[in-house]
């Protein structure tokens, strides 16, 4: 597999092989995170694509229904009160009341049917009669007020109904590819704060590209101009990975979940209604939920599959995190805020292993995970990562500027005989401060030399002043 980038962030060009463990090394501000962020954005956008499309359409139709009946919310609230006493007689009124401002993502077809019946009732003028009939015992002298309100809003409501019918017809013609493009576009906007393209590419009016392919198939080629996808120049068949996890901050373990209504909204002419969650919010949500009950057979299978990895992690963090609490095997509970930072790193990986749906198409992106670790724990983290590739067949994209971490991965890939699945890249600056990626898989000497240069500089300085002191 190969992931190619042109003109994203500060990256001029990069062709990254993804066949097991891919390591990107380089200095700060050299675009290492950009690769992971771009790959995560596309992968996350098209995860469970058919399900997302149905949920999106359900939400869109739900809000159309709410918009049509909005002028009568006050009267429907009275009917809602009666419905609790089982006095509402008409099915249509009770169904409109029943959706109760909270949509169910699994009810797309039901919402479409309800919308059509509601529109038919509005167009015939029978809805108002049904509403008055249901409020007969409490409406009193307000019947004329309801009729006047109907006359005031009748034309607008019927236009809403016409628009709603056309809307449903339009999204029923929507293709998977169209929906995928809009999901990718918006997820890139969330991950890159509406600035996925490099300023140089944008200034030159150029096109940026994201491509994923193997020797037999191109999965997608996304062309971007002014941070919008050019659908006529792009292609999309499917995403390759089933699930992606992007870990770049151990402190997400202690953050509260961002409510879905605060996540980035997305509504445009392609009707994408889903709230896009950033990679950090998705990780926050995972860290706060309880472990899934998978049943005995599934649990046994999963434990056998990851047992060697879990032994390594348990040696450092024997407990588990759930709902913001770390619980040790002895039952002692500790708020995750009080967990050591290094332990947070291992706890996040452990949570992914126990809660995630891991397959050979799972992508794990770790952005400088060694930053908070002692060298001995860096070595153990490297072993965990190598075992994830060897025994779980996961794909791992790793960025680092630690010579200790690079050396540990270099040694352990040889110990566990996965060298043929490993690829190494170094970032290099070009003109205009743009970055290109150079593969160093066959010889890591240049990467080690780059890391060693800073150490040698300070070591020489130290010796100089030690001589002065003597």
TrEMBL record:
<dbReference type="GO" id="GO:0005524">
    <property type="term" value="F:ATP binding"/>
</dbReference>
<dbReference type="InterPro" id="IPR041685">
    <property type="entry name" value="AAA_GajA/Old/RecF-like"/>
</dbReference>
<protein>
    <submittedName>
        <fullName>ATP-binding protein</fullName>
    </submittedName>
</protein>
<keyword id="KW-0067">ATP-binding</keyword>
<dbReference type="InterPro" id="IPR051396">
    <property type="entry name" value="Bact_Antivir_Def_Nuclease"/>
</dbReference>
<keyword id="KW-0547">Nucleotide-binding</keyword>
<feature type="domain" description="Endonuclease GajA/Old nuclease/RecF-like AAA">
    <location>
        <begin position="4"/>
        <end position="405"/>
    </location>
</feature>
<dbReference type="Pfam" id="PF13175">
    <property type="entry name" value="AAA_15"/>
</dbReference>
<dbReference type="InterPro" id="IPR027417">
    <property type="entry name" value="P-loop_NTPase"/>
</dbReference>
């Amino acid at each position: 597999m190969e992931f190619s980038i042109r003109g994203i962030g500060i990256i001029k060009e990069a062709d990254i092989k993804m066949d097991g463990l891919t390591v990107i090394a380089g200095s700060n501000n050299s675009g290492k995170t950009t690769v992971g962020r771009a790959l995560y954005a596309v992968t996350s956008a098209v995860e469970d694509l058919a399900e997302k499309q149905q949920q999106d359409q359900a939400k869109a139709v739900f809000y159309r229904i709410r918009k049509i009946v909005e002028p009568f919310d006050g009267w429907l609230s009275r009917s809602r009160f009666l419905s609790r006493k089982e006095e509402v007689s008409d099915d249509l009124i009770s169904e409109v009341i029943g959706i109760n401002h909270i949509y169910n993502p699994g009810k797309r077809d039901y919402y479409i049917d309800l919308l059509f019946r509601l529109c038919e009732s509005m167009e015939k003028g029978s809805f108002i009669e049904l509403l008055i009939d249901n409020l007969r015992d409490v409406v009193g002298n307000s019947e004329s007020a309801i009729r006047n309100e109907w006359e005031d809003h009748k034309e607008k409501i019927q236009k809403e109904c016409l628009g709603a019918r056309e809307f449903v017809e339009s999204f029923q013609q929507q293709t998977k590819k169209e929906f995928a493009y809009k999901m990718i576009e918006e997820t890139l906007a969330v991950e890159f704060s509406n600035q996925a393209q490099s300023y140089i590419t944008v200034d030159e009016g150029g096109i940026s590209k994201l491509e994923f392919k193997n020797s037999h198939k191109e999965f997608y080629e996304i062309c971007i101009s002014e941070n919008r996808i050019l659908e006529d120049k792009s292609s999309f068949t499917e995403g390759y990975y089933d699930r992606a996890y992007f870990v770049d901050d151990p402190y997400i373990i202690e953050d509260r979940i961002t409510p879905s209504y605060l996540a980035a909204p997305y509504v445009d002419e392609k009707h994408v209604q889903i709230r896009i969650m950033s990679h950090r919010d998705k990780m926050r949500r995972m860290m706060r939920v309880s472990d899934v009950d998978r049943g005995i057979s599934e649990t046994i299978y999963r434990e056998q599959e990851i047992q060697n990895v879990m032994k390594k992690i348990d040696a450092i963090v024997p407990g588990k995190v759930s709902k913001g609490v770390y619980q040790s095997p002895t039952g002692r509970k500790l708020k995750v805020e009080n967990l050591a930072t290094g332990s947070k790193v291992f706890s996040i990986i452990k949570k992914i292993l126990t809660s995630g749906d891991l397959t050979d198409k799972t992508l794990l992106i770790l952005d400088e995970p060694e930053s908070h670790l002692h060298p001995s724990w860096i070595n153990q983290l490297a072993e965990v990562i190598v075992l994830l590739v060897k025994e779980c067949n996961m794909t791992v994209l790793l960025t680092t500027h630690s010579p200790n971490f690079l050396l540990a991965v270099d040694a352990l890939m040889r110990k566990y005989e996965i060298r043929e699945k490993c690829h190494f890249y170094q970032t290099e600056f070009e003109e205009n401060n743009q970055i290109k990626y150079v593969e160093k898989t066959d010889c890591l000497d240049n990467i080690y030399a780059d890391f060693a240069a800073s150490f040698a500089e300070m070591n020489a300085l130290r010796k100089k002043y030690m001589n002065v002191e003597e």
